[in-house]
Amino acid sequence: MTHPIHIIGGGLAGSEAAWQAANAGVPVILHEMRPIRQTDAHVTDRLGELVCSNSLRSDDATGNAVGLLHAEMRLAGSVVMAAADASRIPAGSALAVDREGFCENITARLQAHPKITIAREEITTTPAAWDNVIIATGPLTSPALSAALLELTGEDGLSFFDAIAPIVYFDSVNMDICWRQSRYDKGTADYINCPLDKAQYEAFVAALLAGKKTVFRDWEKTTPYFDGCLPIEVMAERGIETLRHGPMKPRGLTNAHKPDEKPHAVVQLRQDNALGTLYNMVGFQTKLTHAEQKRIFRMIPGLEQARFARLGGLHRNTFLNSPRLLDDQLRLKSAPRLRFAGQMTGVEGYVESAASGLVAGRAAAARALGLPFAPPPVTTAHGALIHHVTGGHIARGGAKSFQPMNINFGLFPPLEAPATGEDGKRLKGRQKTIARRRAICERALADFRRWLMN
Fold first, then answer.
1. 391: left (phi over 0), alpha (psi -120 to 50) or beta
2. Nearest 5°: CA angle at 383, between 382 and 386?
3. Does 376 sit behind a cis peptide bond, omega within 30 degrees of 0 on the bond before it?
4. Taking Cα atoms as reference points, which of 276, 415, 412, 350 lies closest to residue 81?
5. Which of 60, 91, 198, 204 is most buried by its number of CB atoms within 10 A?
């Protein structure tokens, strides 16, 4: 008799994990603490409740990374995508849903599944008798379970305001203005440097101070900032020179394009993934709204045409240092009976959370059935996402600098775009980008289909 898989948390990740494991023929006990214990953000006891936006973002599977993730999930029989399609509301190319109908649909499907038992109870630890567990409790993990996870992982800060700096696509950085160099030429030239003169710097600081900021929810205000993770605009409030002596200090750097001119300030970009396609804006964690970030950060010389894979933010979150703690099957290295899924792994976003649950559920089912399991190839959206959170992140400082990430094309292995279009004309600029993304999507779907058949 197959022992059940215990899944803690009935959000999108836990619900998807339960569905995938149960469809593989393995009994599942899905533990959800609501309504016994509510969170500060949820308002119902339904499974898969969306607590903010009703949009699951773009549904374009030919030119958008999250749309590609949608397509892969549909191929895998995702309950989240089935519920989304059933409760879809008009939103152009985005997949927006009726929130109430969406979570009711997921709840009904899981309640009706003969292999799934839903237990309404708070889990405060992981009993040793449970030998196949998925923890998918999300950013609002209960205090008791958070404490147990802290003790288990040895992490010194599991629930905190995580500072997220913007990430730009390398191919959108103007290297005719920027240059590669590490401070004082120590080690290799790991950083891209963007120079500002005095007037540019002062205008930039003024824009930071005047820019529109996001407003925290009341329950977020009780969590303090992490040491060393102040928003850049908060640092700017301390005086006009503060940033020049902090993340924008020009010391130890020489502009390769203008070696005789000393920059007044420098913004540094640091490689954020193994492929070298993404670069992190060092020290630029921020509370600016997304629209303001795009406007203000494009004031930086060399970033006038910057495209952002992720915009910055600062919010309460609960996630593991996954590159250090988890293997490529989302298992805790020190206790392989435990898997993690959802935002706790460092994926960001509803769709990404559900996708990680899909992989975790299939992996746990394979273990229960005594079958081998290989994660999806990195050429797929699922594989690229799991690879990033479990080891593909190589920003300077290694796992210490790990931060949550949405799916984006910078996580995929590069693929050259066709040189010419269907009309035989040479592709340039935006056309070439569109062709490259389409090719990445085609490769991903083909590889994902092969993975599902194994």
1. left
2. 85
3. no
4. 350
5. 204
Q: In CATH, what is the architecture of 164-316?
A: Beta Barrel (2.40)
Give the span between the Cα atoms of 426 and 4, in whole angstroms. Answer: 56
What is the dotted CATH code of the domain comprising 5-158+319-411?
Answer: 3.50.50.60
Contact, 118 vs 30, CB < 8 A?
yes
Question: Closest by alpha carbon to 195, among 186, 204, 187, 185?
Answer: 204
Helix pair 198-210, 290-297: axis angle to 10 deg: 170
Task: Give the integer Cα–Cα distance in Å for 85 and 154.
Answer: 41
Put the strands of the sheet holding 167-169 in their side by side order. Answer: 179-180, 191-196, 265-271, 278-281, 167-169, 308-310
**What is the C-alpha separation between 298 and 288, in angstroms, rounded?**
14
Same fold, 5-158+319-411 and 164-316: no
pLDDT band per the 50, 70, 90 thresholds, residue 216: low
Question: Which residue carries 């396609």 as its tokens?
Answer: 277
- Domain ranges within the chain, ordered by starting residue: 5-158+319-411, 164-316
Burial-class residue 409 by CB neighbours within 10 Å (0-12, 13-18, 19+): buried
Query: How confident is the model over 11-58, as pLDDT tens digits?
Result: 999 999 999 999 999 999 999 998 888 776 677 889 999 876 778 999
The per-residue pLDDT for range 232-256, each reduced to its tens digit, is 998 999 999 999 999 999 999 999 9
321 pLDDT above the threshold of 70:
yes
